[in-house]
From TrEMBL:
Localization per record: Cytoplasm, Cytosol; Cytoplasmic vesicle; Lysosome membrane
Entry function: Non-catalytic component of the TSC-TBC complex, a multiprotein complex that acts as a negative regulator of the canonical mTORC1 complex, an evolutionarily conserved central nutrient sensor that stimulates anabolic reactions and macromolecule biosynthesis to promote cellular biomass generation and growth. The TSC-TBC complex acts as a GTPase-activating protein (GAP) for the small GTPase RHEB, a direct activator of the protein kinase activity of mTORC1.
Gene Ontology, cellular component aspect: cytoplasmic vesicle; cytosol; lysosomal membrane
Name of the featured protein: TBC1 domain family member 7
One Pfam family from the record: RabGap-TBC_2
Record GO terms (molecular function): GTPase activator activity
Source organism (scientific name): Culex pipiens
Annotated Gene3D superfamilies: Ypt/Rab-GAP domain of gyp1p, domain 2 (1.10.8.680), Ypt/Rab-GAP domain of gyp1p, domain 3 (1.10.472.80)
Amino acid sequence: MQQRIAVYDDLLRALQVMGTIDDKTPKNRVLYAMWLLETKQLCLGFDLQQECSFVNITEVLLQVFENDIEIYWMAKGFHVLSEEIREEMGMLLDLTETILEKEDNGIYIHLKQCDILPGLPLAKWYSSFFSGVLSELALIRIWDKICGRSNKIVIFVFIEIMRTLRRRVLRCMDLKSLLECIDSVSGSTLIVLVTKAQECLPQIKDEQETADMIVNKAIELWQQNKGHKEYNIPKQLN
């Protein structure tokens, strides 16, 4: 632990000396800058405000835990898991369509006919483990599965979000209306633009009961399907 404290303090001090951060820099951005510096990715003029899974994950951890040093190390660990999901993203997206078609053909057909599926920010949601989409307490249960390398759980979370909002989803005729539908569950006034779908942060997180129900159903559905060979993600060849 002492070594982690020393590394944390050194990184923080270096960023302060460099003028990269100050007292007004949000904590999740500070931790992001520390990670960039530690991994030698921080360059002059780097925009710390850009969206990335590390920042989104860190924001959730800051809401749940109090020790900044432990949060930083947890964020680094989750980022490794996020990169693993990115490597599997092509297969995860293909499986998403396959499983959605099986579990709710009506939603699948509707999303296909309206050409909504290709525009959904699934890569962002999956790689950030739905940070900013569901409540922090619900997310922890999903992340527990991710830590066990059960990456497919993200597919079932998405499917259960669609099924929970089914009647509203079937009334959405384009990507913008669907993203607004997801966002509206929290009562947020955020306007989601279709052209910036990859940057959106639709939220159900203020509806704890809804989030818990989605996670419960997602875990149940994942458990029902995890033994099916057709849903297995093949191992990458060395």
